Structure to design on (138 residues):
């Protein structure tokens, strides 16, 4: 299933409308069917993928809020790309289990960066960042 996911996301690189209409739903469904091996393959390759590929994946990674998705999102947070970072933070708002919150809090650099982005964030991004902080600390 990982190979199918890779081919699908790669094929959707220049199709913005299709991506948000249908593509993310298809990826969401693919992720729910992942085996342990698929998660291992994705984890080992995700940081080598193009930035747009990573953004698309992060946008879809709250299908089951499982530990595999959480670990991948946490690895993607170590990026200089502000858009990818905010997409990951937005998706991480879905991770409301105590374990998930603790894993996020165990990465203080994430919280520092969120607080650094807040003063210059636009209205929508500010809402995402503030809601993330409330959910992580709540």
């Amino acid at each position: 299933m990982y190979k199918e996911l890779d081919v699908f996301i790669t094929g959707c690189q220049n199709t913005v409308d299709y991506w948000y209409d249908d593509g993310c739903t298809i990826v969401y469904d693919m992720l729910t069917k992942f085996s342990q091996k698929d998660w291992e393959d994705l984890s080992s390759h995700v940081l080598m993928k193009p930035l747009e590929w990573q953004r698309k994946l992060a946008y879809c990674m709250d299908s089951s809020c499982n530990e595999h998705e959480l670990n991948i999102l946490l690895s993607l947070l170590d990026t200089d790309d502000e858009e990818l970072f905010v997409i990951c933070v937005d998706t991480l708002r879905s991770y409301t289990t105590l374990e998930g919150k603790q894993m996020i809090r165990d990465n203080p650099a994430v919280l520092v960066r969120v607080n650094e982005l807040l003063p210059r964030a636009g209205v929508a991004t500010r809402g995402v960042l503030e809601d993330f902080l409330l959910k992580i600390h709540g």
In short: DSSP finds nine helices and no strands in the chain. The chain has one domain: 2-137.
